[in-house]
């Protein structure tokens, strides 16, 4: 993956306002990425397995995951994805409002690539997204699929 090609990012987020904030931050941060959005872990697995209306879904290079969602929350999603040999290599970054030490520890125990507490300020959020973009597009080498 190079900076001249957009990476594919799957945002797993149930709150419409937070999803909008992420999309806005990506746009304002001029992030070179294809952002796909699903509302919970159940939809995320449908997307990743190209089921239930997601037949043409690309394999994401990165997953941004909220922890607190209905049906299948981020904790359950992490436990499941890290046991799936076809999906385990996709890096997952937790992007959540929770600053609880127990959530931080359990996320890293489930092999997340990073844990970020969502900033409330839009300017700070844009800076955070630019940093994510720089790290995941310019610095890190991601496997081809």
From TrEMBL:
InterPro entries, per the entry:
CheY-like_superfamily, Sig_transdc_resp-reg_receiver, TCS_response_regulator
SUPFAM superfamilies from the entry? CheY-like
Q: Which domain of life is it from?
A: Bacteria
Q: Which UniProt keywords apply?
A: Phosphoprotein
Q: Which residues carry this modification: 4-aspartylphosphate?
A: 66
User: PANTHER family under this entry?
Assistant: RESPONSE REGULATOR RCP1, RESPONSE REGULATOR RCP1-RELATED
Q: What is this protein called?
A: Response regulatory domain-containing protein
């Amino acid at each position: 993956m190079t900076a001249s090609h957009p990476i594919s990012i799957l945002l797993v987020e149930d709150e419409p306002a937070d999803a909008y904030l992420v999309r806005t931050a990506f746009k304002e941060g001029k992030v070179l990425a294809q952002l796909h959005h699903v509302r919970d872990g159940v939809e995320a697995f449908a997307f990743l397995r190209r089921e239930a209306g997601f037949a043409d879904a690309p394999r994401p290079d990165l997953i941004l995951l909220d922890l607190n969602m209905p049906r299948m929350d981020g904790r359950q999603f992490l436990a499941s994805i890290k046991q799936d040999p076809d999906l385990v290599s996709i890096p997952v970054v937790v992007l959540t409002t929770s600053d609880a030490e127990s959530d931080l520890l359990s996320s890293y125990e489930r092999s997340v690539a990073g844990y970020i507490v969502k900033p409330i300020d839009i300017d700070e959020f844009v800076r955070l997204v630019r940093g994510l973009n720089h790290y995941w597009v310019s610095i890190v080498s991601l496997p081809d699929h």
